[in-house]
Input
Amino acid sequence: MTQHTTIRRAPRSDQLLPEVLRTALALAATGVPVLPLRRGKVPFGNCVDCTDLACGGRPNMRTTGPCQCPRPCHGWAAATTNPDVLTSTPWATAWQRAVAVAYHPGGAGLTVVDLDDAAALAWARESLPATRVVPTTRGEHWIYRGTMPSHNGVRPGVDIKSTMAYARHRGPGTGLLAALPDTVHALAARAPAPARPAPITVPRSNGGPCPHRSPAFLERGIAMAEQQITAARSAVHATVYRTFLAVLSTHGRCGCLTDAHVTRLFTAAQTKGESARHCTDAWTNARTKLGM
Output
C-alpha cells in the first residue's frame, strides 16, 4: 500500500479491531494479499491524495489510474500481506469504514471461477473438477490452485478472477483445493471481447445532417456522463443505469452516438467495478425503457 511518507502504525489491540480487519489479518497471515472494500464492492484510495479515489483512480482495472503515487494505492495492486501496512494510517481509517474484505487471488496463487447464476452452476458441476466452493449472493466461487489472466464473461454467468483482479472474501468455503484445470484455461482462450452494443441508428429527417446535435454538444454529453459515473460514491449500479438512460434519451435517436462513445461509457462503469455483463444489461434496460 502506498504512503507518501514513512508508515505510521495505528495502535493495535486485536480485541478492538474491526471485524473486517481481524479477518484481513488472519488471511494475510496465511499468505493471502488483502484489501478493504467500501460500499458497492469498490476499493478505497488508501493514500492521502487518493482518499475515496478522488484522484480518479481506476479500481479493479489493469492500471491504477492517473494518480502520481510512488506505488499503487488502490485496486488489486494494493492488496498486501504485511500486517504493519494493514494497520497503518490511513489503512486503519479505511477499515473502520469497510463493509467487506477483498483479496488478490493471483497474489495467493489462486484462480476464482465466479459462477453468477443457476445455469452457470449447472455447467460447472458438469464440466469442472470438484474443488473448494464458497457460496456467494447469487451463486458460488470455485477456487483452484494456480494462476492465469483474469477474464470477465467467458461464458454466460461466468467470470475468471486471478491475476490483476480482486475477489470478495466470503468465508473459507468447503472442499479441498484442486489444480486449475485446462477447461478453465480453454474458456479464457475462447473468451469473446467484452460485449458492447452496436450504436443506435435512427433515420434522420429529410436525410440531412442532424438538425439538433453537434459534435461539441455530443462530446460534452459523453464527458459529463463519464464524470457522473466516476464520481459515484454509492449505488453504482443505479448511477450507471440512470446515466445510460440520460445519454440515450438525449443522444440516442439521432444516429450520432457511435460505438466509440458507448465504449467510453462502458469503460467508466467498469472502472467503478461493474462487469461487462452488468453494463450490457443496464444499456439494454435503458433502451427498453425508452422504447428503442
User: Anything to note?
Assistant: The chain has nine helices and twelve strands. The two ends are 46 Å apart (CA to CA). Residues 1-8, 58-65, 198-207 have pLDDT under 50 and may be disordered. The longest helix spans residues 215-230.
